[in-house]
Amino acid sequence: MGVKKTIKCKLVGLTKRKLELLNREYDNFQRYLKTGEDRGVYSATKQQGKRTYRKIDPEKEYLFIRKDLMDIRKTDNKLAEVWARIPICGVRGGIKVALAHQPSFEEWEICGSKLVRKNGEFYLHVTVKKKGEVTGG
Q: What is the pLDDT of residue 14?
């Protein structure tokens, strides 16, 4: 038995280049889902999109990041304590982004995540699980 939860983290301190890369990847993924046209989407993202989305709803097609491609680390950086690596088509190693939310990911196993764009800002919804007994009242 275990516990699963989703931690929502805002991406902060994005440079102009990182914002452009995220918007391009997100828009290209949306186009790929609607038309099948590949204008440059990370291959694992395309595979996950094919598996996940049966019906296309532009408001809900988030960009999935598989757990084997997700890298979240604690740092001593002044901008943010927690950073994530997001795979982007054409960028070797992806891009590293700062997370505003400061959760302790160390005790949890990352199951996967979704990159969400809302009102021009990006959020990472990280699904995590912890093994152990569930207690309740």
A: 94
Domain formed by 2-131, architecture: Beta Barrel (2.40)
15 close to 122: Cβ distance less than 8 angstroms: no
Task: Identify the residue whose tokens are 């960009």.
Answer: 63
Q: Is 117 helix (H, G, I), strand (E, B) or coil?
A: strand
**Cβ neighbour number for residue 31 with a 10 Å cutoff:** 15
Q: Could you give the 3-state DSSP secondary structure of residue 41?
A: coil
Mapping DSSP onto H, E and C, the string for 76-109 reads CCCCCCEEEEEEECCEEEEEEEEECCCCCHHHCE
Residue-wise pLDDT tens digits, 42-96: 766 666 666 666 555 555 667 778 788 888 888 888 888 889 999 898 888 889 9
Domain range annotation of the chain:
2-131
Return the number of other C-beta atoms located less than 10 Å from residue 83's C-beta: 17
Q: What are the tokens at 53?
A: 């989305």
